[in-house]
Design goal:
Helix content of chain C: 55-70%
Mean pLDDT of chain C: 81
Chains: A mainly alpha (235), B mainly alpha (235), C mainly alpha (54)
Structural class of chain C: mainly alpha
Oligomer: heterotrimer
Low-confidence stretches of chain A: 180-186
Radius of gyration of chain C: 21 Å
Largest interface: A-B, 36 and 37 residues
Number of helices of chain A: 6
Mean pLDDT of chain A: 88
Number of domains of chain A: 1
Structural class of chain A: mainly alpha
Strand content of chain A: under 5%
Chain lengths: 235, 235, 54
């Protein structure tokens, strides 16, 4: 991607960031003030309007990273661009994964009575988060650029492939070892809650997409700088 | 020679070379066994001799020790070939990359089994495993060990290739390895525990789910490895 | 369990904690992403690797 095109892309998405933030704030307003309390969980259920969207974003960006990696291997002509996409997507997957764990834990304390319950979804998120951290460590410790790209893409695919396996395994494991500590089983969510949740999820996905585009351009520019410095040192 | 015959020959070549290198020198095998023995006494020291005789802890300890042994094994998977220049020779020839992968995985299965059998004896002695437990474990244990080794060997071989050109492999390998093969550990511990007549499970769970996981994981990661073998083994 | 008091900690702290955390982290992520681009772009200019001025 030529630098002029990167500059334009960056300017565009930096501008779109503000309306995306505004839409998210509207979603949070709806979740915090517009909708009434849940009949089972009371006011604490409002954490759902941040926890569920960030959890969705985490999984969406990990899956996207794997898709970019596969495209990069299938179409060699776009391998470098797909690697940059994967890198930015895993960055987002890592941050959203950490947020999902933290907010899930904060939500779990009042509802389950414990900070951590080995819930299959949270445990799967934890494992996925660890693999994302490993991705970053791998990139840092692989000096050769081509080897770094190959290794990173493969780990991104493995991370996505591992998600359903871990979920399946932990689900069975939990059912045998420990009864669900969350005893307050509410009825199905009212349409209002469903609607507000959908608004917040879409808003978070939009915001994450805008940040992804900005981060992607940043990664590409940093790699251009690194390559230019490398070229100068070798000359 | 047909392509299939050539593939089998190359696979056997890699397997045979790995077996000869390790078992001729014996120091590596003996060192790994000594390491396993150290771990076998680590758990009684950590948890106390009374707790370690509880059925649930006993089985978990055996498989946890296996985890560390596998991590050590896969970290050194290509060391002999790299030091001897054999890997570069393989890669510069027309040897099918998937044959190298399969050969290495077969080696890991056999190598781990050669460590696990003496480890099993140590486990029976140190953890006072009763005779009736051994009898009920009997028919399950060997297929369980083979599938465990196959699953962990497949993932380990993949990761050994991924981290081949990275520095700080001693951090990277466990960091990548443990999250990816967590499901196999869960399945192995669960199947072993469920075979123990001294343990009453909370809910009735059939063994089928766990055997599905034990079989499914190596198949899945093997498929990924075969598809990516040309990328994994680049000169 | 009362939904308004959890071990004498009001639900407000849990909800506020979750939202504040998400706001801070996302803000940090956005600022970091913007900053990384700007720093790399500036370095490209300063080290003479780019003819563009931005």
């Amino acid at each position: 991607m030529p630098q002029a095109h990167r500059d334009k892309t960056f300017s565009l998405w930096a501008k779109i960031l503000y309306p995306a933030i505004f839409i998210q704030l509207v979603g949070w307003y709806l979740g915090l003030f517009w909708i009434g309390a849940d009949k089972d969980q009371g006011e604490v259920f409002r954490i759902m309007f941040v926890h569920v969207p960030v959890a969705w974003c985490a999984f969406v960006w990990i899956l996207a990273a794997a898709v970019f990696a596969i495209i990069g291997f299938v179409r060699k002509s776009v391998f470098e661009q797909m690697d940059q996409n994967t890198h930015a997507a895993i960055d987002l997957g890592t941050v959203f994964g950490a947020l999902a764990l933290a907010t899930g834990s904060i939500w779990g304390r009042p509802t389950w009575g414990v900070w951590w319950d080995w819930d299959p979804r949270l445990t799967t998120t934890l494992v996925m988060f660890l693999i994302c951290c490993a991705y970053h460590v791998l990139r840092s410790f692989t000096p050769d650029v081509q080897a770094r790209r190959n290794a990173g893409q493969i780990v991104a695919i493995l991370a996505a492939v591992n998600v359903p396996i871990v979920y399946f395994s932990v689900n069975i494991w939990r059912s045998v070892h420990q009864p669900q500590t969350f005893v307050r089983k509410g009825g199905s969510a009212s349409p209002d809650i469903g609607l507000v949740l959908l608004v917040n999820t879409l808003a978070m996905l939009l915001l994450s997409f805008v940040i992804f585009k900005i981060r992607r351009v940043a990664v590409a520019t940093e790699e251009t700088l690194e390559a230019a410095r490398e070229g100068r040192n070798q000359a | 020679m047909s392509a299939a015959q050539l593939w089998r020959r190359n696979c056997w070549l890699v397997f045979e070379y790995s077996v000869r290198s390790v078992f001729l020198r014996k120091a590596s095998w003996a060192g790994t066994l000594a390491f396993a023995a150290c771990l076998a006494i680590l758990f009684p020291f950590a948890f106390g001799t009374e707790l370690i005789q509880k059925a649930e802890i006993r089985h978990g300890a055996f498989w946890a020790i296996n985890e560390f042994v596998v991590a050590l094994t896969v970290a050194r998977l290509f060391t002999v070939e790299t030091e001897g220049g054999i890997l570069e020779y393989f890669l510069s020839t027309q040897v099918n990359r998937s044959a190298i992968l399969f050969g290495k995985i077969l080696f890991v299965v056999l190598y781990l089994l050669s460590i696990q059998l003496p480890l099993l004896l140590m486990w029976i002695v140190f953890y006072n495993v009763p005779g009736n437990v051994l009898l009920s474990l009997g028919s399950t244990l060997l297929p369980l060990l083979v599938l465990f080794n196959l699953g962990t060997g497949t993932i380990g071989a993949l990761l050994a290739c991924v981290t081949a050109r990275s520095t700080a492999r001693d951090i990277l390998m466990p960091l990548l390895f443990y999250p990816l093969q967590m499901s196999i550990l869960l399945a192995a511990v669960s199947l072993a525990t469920m075979s123990d007549p001294g343990i009453v499970m909370l809910a009735g769970t059939s063994n089928e789910s766990w055997w599905t996981a034990m079989l499914g994981v190596p198949v899945l990661f093997l498929a990924v490895g075969v598809l990516l073998s040309n990328v994994l083994f680049q000169e | 369990m009362s939904t308004s008091e959890f071990g004498n900690v009001s639900w407000v702290y849990f909800v506020a904690g979750a939202y504040v955390l998400v706001v801070v982290v996302l803000l940090g992520l956005a600022v970091n992403s913007l900053g990384r681009y700007r720093r790399a772009r500036q370095a490209l200019n300063d080290e003479g690797f780019s003819d563009d001025k931005s």
